[in-house]
Amino acid sequence: MTVSRDDLKTRIGQALGEAKADLVIKNTRFLNVVTGEIAEGDIAVCGEVIVGTYESYDGVEEIDGRGLTVVPGFIDTHVHCESTCVTPQEFDRCVLPRGTTTAICDPHEICNVLGEQGLRYFLDSAGGTALDLFVQLSSCVPATELETSGARLEAPDLIRHMDHPRVLGLAEFMNFPGVFHKVDGVLDKLAAFDGRHIDGHAPLVSGKELNAYLSCGIRNCHETTSAAEAMEKLRKGMQVLIRDGSVSKDVHALAEVISPETSPFLGFCTDDRNPLDIAEEGHMDHLIRSAIRLGAPVAHVYRAATWSAARGFRLYDRGLVAPGHRADLVLLDDLEDCAVNRVIRNGRVVGPHSFDGLPAVTPVGLDSVKLEPVAEEDFAVPAGGSVQSVIGLEPGRILTEHRRIEVPVVGGRMVADPSRDLLKICVFARHGSNRNIGRGFVQGFGFAEGALASSVGHDSHNICVVGASDADMRIAVNWLIELQGGFVAVRDGKVVGELALPLAGLMSLEPFETVEAKLRTLRAAVRAMGCPLAEPFLQLAFLPLPVIPHLKITDRGMVDVDRFELIAA
């Protein structure tokens, strides 16, 4: 936002009351996240900027704020828009009316499929949203060398984009083992962004390894899952971003950490949250509401979600209801319940008109699933030792257990045993560079028959399928190939639910309302199969992610994340 001498004269005149302000919220209360007080007085706005508080003003446009409480606009500090299953423009329409006025995205999902083409798609999209969408440059494409991605981004590829106006810095640095092993390509990226913002990703990293990670200029972490882990990171100067997505729900574990002392060093993020969850629970408003209900102090929850989030990303122009700050404001019917009445973004009331006339961005990656049709033989797992490594799913978490379980053998092949909730899981490379197939077993999905398949498989986004029978798994994978990506549920040889995600195999081309409805239908079909998980496809999507402890699977096979190596077949 550039400002001229005349702009400043206009602001000064309206702040002094010499002229009517462009917009005034009258008769209202507002939360001062500096002092924690609930203050009274008009809020005057000139253009995009707040010019008056604690005083009385007249406005060209006036809003009666009687009975409402005004807070700063919410900031989602880390989100993968692709994981909402809709385009950035539809993400915008979905979350801005709920109070999220700023979002900081990492497009590493699409970058792992399309490389710089995907990055450019997001940079173009960020210039055409009503909310303020910033882009972090994806640092780990691929996330590791234990999987096959569709592209590779090295330091020179990122440097080309580092001065783009929508770029804040380097996105989550997931390859923490690469940091500790001083891998040249890893260090080249960190060195290139020295002095700029670098996002972290350090689940369960502690002690001297955490010191080493932070010494590289990495500033935050959204992978914290316990209060003890959070406190160690805070003590060492790391900003902790409290996450609550569709799968990883950490507010319950971390609400106790929020205090007057810690709130300046916290933030909130959704990471991965789909339109159905947003419709049923909310977006950032849900995180705020949840933390308050768990006993966190109200003012400090809002401070973390606004001012602290902004400061952590060097966005010094927002996060306060105060003169000189951006007029991104949320008007609440109830402060503790975070009940959004209306939203003001850049000094304008948000409504359907807010999204009119925004530039369209041409979809990319509509032919990204390059896998040939599969046969039942492709799912066969030759008999090995009687006891095998099995992924133990933990509902509501992306951390998994490394279990050692006896797997039955029939006809010289290891097979699923639904009676023990032991299902087969396979990952098929889909980017056309090889025909890798990773095979293994998993517990936690709970269904006795059928199969689920997804082209969303963090972070390389190969096709991942889990099932009780090879026949249904084959149908699910081949149906996904026909759809060019998405989610598929199969039972008794028939497709019982689907959601097509043709944009890079990650996003729908339909409005978020349509995606929400289809997800609702798909969820019902999967529950009818006997799966108890709230978000089975998103839980499935995190099983190929070999940077989250403890046991995962990629197209190259089962991965012991703690040792950061493939398990020998």
TrEMBL record:
It is an enzyme of class 3 (hydrolase). Residues 69-350 form the Amidohydrolase-related domain. Its cofactor is Mn(2+). Belongs to the metallo-dependent hydrolases superfamily. Adenine deaminase family. Its EC number is 3.5.4.2. The gene is ade. Coiled coil: none annotated. This is Adenine deaminase. The lineage of its organism: Bacteria, Pseudomonadati, Pseudomonadota, Alphaproteobacteria, Rhodospirillales. Residues 398-565 form the Adenine deaminase C-terminal domain. Pfam families: Adenine_deam_C (PF13382), Amidohydro_1 (PF01979). It comes from the Bacteria. SUPFAM superfamilies: Composite domain of metallo-dependent hydrolases, Metallo-dependent hydrolases. GO terms for molecular function: adenine deaminase activity. Gene3D superfamilies: Metal-dependent hydrolases, Urease, subunit C, domain 1. It catalyses: adenine + H2O + H(+) = hypoxanthine + NH4(+). Keywords: Hydrolase, Manganese, Plasmid.
